[in-house]
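Below is a filled-in request sheet from our internal design queue. Each sheet records the structural input a requester submitted and the sequence that came back. We keep these sheets so that new team members can see what a complete request looks like end to end.

REQUESTER: design group, bay 2
PRIORITY: normal
MODE: inverse folding
CHAIN LENGTH: 484
BACKBONE (tokenized):
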């Protein structure tokens, strides 16, 4: 007779795997700036201190025209970004001081094809990403590349309505192929699209100009289907280019808990988690539209046009890993909420940042356990971080103990997931340097381990100053997660 913990128990690990990829993540639209590339829809998301909701990306055609014809009337922080396009070498050098093992960035479509569908790719754009890879290789940092981080080239949104158009979908595949060929053998981890479950009927994710399209709700589901097909094709092409390539399905974690243990709230949470979270990963990782989704579409009069061979393509080209961005978690009530993603209630037991984003490390652990139970594929945390209003102190730094506690608690949660048998292989915190906010285009929502001296209007010295969290994370990485 033997004891289970003496035999099977050997599988248990004490902490993070030796080859765990500690890292950090940025996106082109928030970091690079628009120099040397065509405009993307993200560049048109202006900063408006009086109405931050306007920058969410759902501009009308008239609003787009006005921004293109009269740029002087607006402030466009994403056009400046944090000048990462020019400053990448010194920024990566600073990040290498953290000892990080991986760096997630996105390639900007309009840097490779300025209008999205030009006859030839931009040599300058491709050379830029090669230089960025040179730099990462110099410090032994593994790149993780997102091909579409919600930055549709303006031309493709305005003239073709984004991913709804066959022309745009082929242009995306051509762009993806050009990038994967050029960077072949140098990038192993690819995320074809950022946060597929946040696909919205708007400019940023589908590249749709709202007031030019009828029957938007139906278009959204069709757009999601197009993205599933594109991701499968990217994986198919990418695996031919290099069989070592690995592709990730990416979710923004919005797993909900019921507000109360009332059966109605419980089933609402289950149903909503199915349709706003699992549906996307089920299709991309299991290769099939799940039954609960088909039932939901039938009940709600929704349907998707499917071309011949598309379902087989999805089935035969499932993603290899799951990438998750995790910031906060909310609860849901059958009485108060609808099925729409984002329609939820703040958990009253949790603290929040100034933007109302709750802090719930246990939610991260809970999510990892649930995903692993369901998918059994390696999991990467593609984003996790804490946004706060901060000022540079007279001592030339920021004492961001709140960020350290946030990150410590979340990394502890990941360690617990690993100890419970979840296969986690990377952690990319958001963000290494303060960047322009995706949602509100402001600079004052700072996530960085490094302070960037730049305000909402792009003023400042743009100098980088490591915060306390920089030195703390350096120690976490050096100790492989032991010193938290
Ligand atoms: C994620 C996005 O959803 O949220 C990032 O992938 C974004 O691009 C992050 O920056 C945080 O959102 P925000 O609006 O605070 O920048």
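RETURNED SEQUENCE:
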């Amino acid at each position: 007779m033997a004891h289970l913990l003496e035999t099977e128990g050997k599988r248990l690990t004490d902490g993070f795997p030796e080859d765990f990829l500690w890292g950090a993540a940025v996106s082109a639209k928030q970091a690079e700036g628009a120099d040397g590339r065509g405009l993307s829809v993200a560049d048109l998301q202006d900063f408006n201190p009086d109405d931050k909701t306007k920058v969410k990306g759902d501009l009308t055609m008239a609003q787009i025209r006005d921004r293109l014809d009269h740029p002087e009337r607006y402030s466009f922080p994403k056009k400046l970004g944090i000048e990462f396009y020019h400053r990448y070498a010194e920024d990566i050098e600073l990040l290498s001081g953290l000892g990080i093992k991986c760096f997630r960035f996105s390639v900007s479509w309009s840097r490779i094809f300025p209008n999205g569908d030009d006859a030839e790719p931009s040599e300058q754009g491709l050379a830029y990403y090669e230089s960025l890879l040179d730099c990462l290789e110099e410090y032994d940092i593994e790149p993780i590349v997102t091909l579409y981080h919600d930055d549709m080239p303006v031309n493709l949104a305005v003239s073709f309505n984004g991913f709804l158009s066959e022309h745009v979908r082929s242009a995306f595949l051509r762009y993806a192929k050009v990038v994967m060929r050029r960077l072949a053998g140098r990038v192993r981890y690819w995320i074809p699209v950022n946060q597929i479950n946040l696909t919205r009927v708007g400019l940023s994710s589908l590249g749709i100009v709202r007031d030019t399209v009828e029957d938007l709700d139906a278009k959204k589901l069709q757009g999601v289907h197009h993205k599933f097909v594109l991701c499968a094709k990217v994986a198919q092409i990418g695996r031919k280019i290099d069989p070592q390539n690995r592709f990730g399905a990416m979710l923004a974690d919005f797993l909900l808990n019921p507000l109360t243990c009332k059966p109605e709230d419980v089933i609402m949470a289950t149903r909503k988690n199915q349709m706003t979270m699992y549906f996307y990963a089920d299709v991309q990782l299991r290769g099939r539209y799940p039954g609960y989704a088909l039932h939901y579409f039938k009940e709600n009069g929704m349907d998707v046009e499917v071309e011949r061979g598309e379902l087989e393509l999805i089935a035969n080209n499932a993603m290899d890993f799951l990438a998750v961005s995790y910031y906060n978690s909310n609860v849901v009530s059958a009485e108060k909420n609808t099925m729409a993603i984002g329609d939820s209630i703040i958990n009253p037991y949790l603290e929040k940042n100034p933007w109302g984003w709750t802090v719930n490390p246990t939610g991260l652990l809970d999510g990892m356990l649930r995903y692993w139970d369901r998918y059994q594929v390696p999991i990467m945390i593609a984003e996790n971080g804490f946004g706060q209003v901060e000022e540079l102190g007279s001592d030339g730094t920021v004492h961001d103990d709140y960020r350290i506690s946030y990150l410590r608690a979340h990394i502890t949660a990941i360690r617990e997931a690993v100890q419970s048998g979840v296969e986690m292989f990377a952690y990319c915190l958001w963000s290494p340097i303060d960047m322009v906010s995706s949602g509100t285009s402001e600079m004052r929502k700072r996530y960085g381990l490094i302070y960037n001296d730049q305000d909402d209007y792009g003023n400042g010295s743009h100098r980088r100053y490591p915060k306390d969290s920089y030195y703390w994370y350096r120690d976490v990485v050096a100790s492989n997660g032991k010193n938290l």
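SHEET NOTES:
- The first strand starts at residue 21 and ends at 25.
- The two ends are 39 Å apart (CA to CA).
FILED BY: M.R.
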